[in-house]
Amino acid sequence: MVRYITVGIDGSEAGRAAAAWGAEIAARRGVPLRLVYAWGIISAWEAPMDAPQHLRMTAEEKLTETGDAIAAAHPELEIRRESPPESPVPALLDRALDSDLLVLGARGLGTIAGFLLGSVSHAVVARAECPVLVVRADSAGPEGPAEVPGTARPICVGLKRPERPDEEVLEFAFAEAARAGLPLRVVHTRRSAGDGTESDGEETAGRLEAALTPWREKYPQVAVDAAPVAGGAAEGLLAEAAGARLLVLGRGGRRLGALAPRVGAVVHAALHHARCPVVIVPHE
To answer: What are the UspA domain coordinates in residue numbering (predicted)?
Structure first.
């Protein structure tokens, strides 16, 4: 079965940034790119043929515009363009089933207010069964290895429990770092122990290293920097990811599908305040 990198577009700057990221990743992985502009139906009982013609035409125009720009930059890339007469959320969730990655855009609001994650992106992130990459409108495109060794911005991944690491999250982070030729920074935040003293840093570092050993062996080409970080999970992750190229986090409840709960506080904070694109990987 064909697996896609699927990008949801809507004609906005954020959608164009998402398409640029999706195209780079699809080209790097050697898989087809699918552009989706879901133009929706006005009401639940209205048939697609009754929907306003201009919605369909707008969708086709934006797909052509975006697809042609990508084809010019990546002539070798297979591009599929779809304009389903569906609401965006169900259309994207359905296409997540045969996608390796779903890419969506978010509009920037500035460092104080954070970034605007629309209702579509938020719903898809919470329920998609494949990893979802959220890209800001002002995000630079993906980059490969730095020309000067040691200057590449790393991929950053949050590890919640070293003693029970989420395999899907680490697999995505290590594989993406290997494909892009980028270093990987593994962040595990820890708070003080219940009696007010700092938890044993050496013991935590040992558990962290034990969790990463099989992944270092599987991806020996990836340079890994890992250390426990004291403080709150959201604050620590955002601080460590400040200079990252990409932040990778996990979301539980993969099998729940449409019944999945909203994203947790850490994922929510990252989606709204991280300066870099964020990938949310569903896991069991």
So the answer is: 1-136, 153-282
**DSSP type of residue 10:** -
Homologous superfamily (CATH) of 4-136 is: HUPs (3.40.50.620)
Q: Extract the runs of DSSP E, i.e. beta strands, from 92-244.
A: 99-108, 115-116, 132-136, 155-158, 184-190, 224-230
**CATH (one of 3.40.190.10, 1.10.3720.10, 3.90.420.10, 3.40.50.620) for 155-282:** 3.40.50.620
Q: Which of these, 153, 112, 148, lies nearest to 245 by C-alpha position? A: 153
Q: Among 84, 178, 99, which Cα is nearest to 133's?
A: 99
Helix (H) or strand (E) holding 8: strand 4-8
Q: What is the pTM of this model?
A: 0.87
At residue 275 the predicted structure's pLDDT band, cuts being 50, 70 and 90, is confident
**Mean pLDDT, the chain, as a whole number?**
84
Distance CA 186, CA 167 (A): 13
Q: What is the DSSP letter of 260?
A: P
